[in-house]
Specification:
Blueprint: H1 8-14, E1 19-21, E2 30-31, H2 33-42, E3 48-51, E4 54-57, E5 71-73, H3 90-94, E6 97-102, E7 105-110, H4 122-129, H5 132-143, E8 149-150, E9 157-161
Parallel strand pairs: 6-8
Antiparallel strand pairs: 1-5, 2-4, 3-4, 6-7, 7-9
Length: 162
């Protein structure tokens, strides 16, 4: 979805979005029940745990220490993501954008930690959020409210909506 601003090469060389620190597990992608029932048969290394009404990947056993800065790699990252388009979580498809609850409204926000995007002008991502891609993100969020995350300080708001 974001190929106009992020190339496959840039993402493959970085993979920052595919690793998670203990302190930022809220960022792990969310899966619906149907995906959780289907994916373990295709990817035996993948384990899930409930988070409210949805599921997230369970990477607790991947950490070797108690250090909150330690990172664990997503089980679907095998020299790049192995999930096809229909299996890839929406969170991953729109990275480094996030749909968040912001001041009583919904917003498309920019993840400030993406090393590749941080080297590009914010105007590039603003244009994307204001485009048809932003409209598709908003439509998906309205139809799948479980994927909306709570706002975190430091995430620039690119577009607000009802």
């Amino acid at each position: 979805m974001l190929k106009t601003v992020l190339s496959n090469t840039e993402c493959a060389e970085c993979r920052f979005c595919c690793s998670f620190r203990r302190q930022s597990l809220w960022e792990t992608p969310l899966f619906d029940g149907e995906s959780v029932n289907r994916l373990p048969a295709l990817y035996p290394d993948a384990h899930f745990k409930p988070r409210g009404d949805v599921f997230t990947i369970d990477i607790d056993d991947c950490y070797m220490t108690d250090d909150p800065e330690e990172e664990a790699l997503c089980p679907f990252n095998k020299n790049g993501c192995v999930l096809n388009g229909e299996d890839k979580p929406f969170d991953c498809s729109i990275w480094p954008l996030r749909v968040m609850r912001y001041k009583g409204r919904l917003a498309i926000c920019l993840t400030p930690t993406c090393p590749v995007i941080s080297s590009k002008p914010v105007a590039v991502m603003q244009k994307l959020a204001d485009s048809e891609t932003g409209d598709r993100i908003i439509t998906y969020a309205k139809n799948h409210p479980w994927m909306i995350k709570e706002y975190k300080n430091g995430f620039p708001v690119l577009r607000e909506f009802e």
